[in-house]
Amino acid sequence: MKIAVVAANGKAGQLIVQEAIARGHEVTAVVRSANKTEAGNVLQKDLFDLTKEDLAGFDAVVSAFGVWSLDTFPQFTTSMEHLAGLLAGSDTRFLVVGGAGSLYVDPKMTTQLADTPDFPEEYKPLAQAMAKGLARLRSFSDTKWTFISPAADFVADGARTGAYILAGEVFTTNEAGQSSISYADYAIAMLDEIEKGSHIKERISVLGR
């Protein structure tokens, strides 16, 4: 498959590129600065300057774009708007590296994890920004999107175990009552979803076993 990874220089992006290459896919790293990934194909361009022509011909486009400060939080929504808009009406799948704070804690899906009393206060603005982005993404009826939330503990340097639990919109823990996944195992789940295409226009979540 032909796969583009936007914001490929980030920690998640690099591992998604690595996993895709290991599986034999043709990968293009979309980066703003010098390429740090293993990808042989590189498009050096700001995300917000990308055009329909830049993303034409790919089977899947992954957004690994991250936001880390109050002034950049709105860009989580605007980046998805831009990319989803470019891919609207095409057969190209659009997959987003999301967050756990917007997962629901009740089966009726009325309360999000970020709204619970024990959710860390310092992470609430980021979680709320990601929730807004997901809500906006859901409005793109003609884009083949999938939003993949990691576990609550998203471990950048965690081990690649090769195993994970696939869940849905509701916050889930493993048999030990834990919600954790390494970036490497998340990358496996991302590539599995790209290859299988099982959850188009859905938000799913993944966690370690």
TrEMBL record:
InterPro entries: NAD(P)-bd_dom, NAD(P)-bd_dom_sf, Polyketide_Oxido-like. SUPFAM superfamilies: NAD(P)-binding Rossmann-fold domains. Residues 8-192 form the NAD(P)-binding domain. Coiled coil: none annotated. Pfam families: NAD_binding_10. This is NADH-flavin reductase. It comes from Streptococcus panodentis. The lineage of its organism: Bacteria, Bacillati, Bacillota, Bacilli, Lactobacillales.
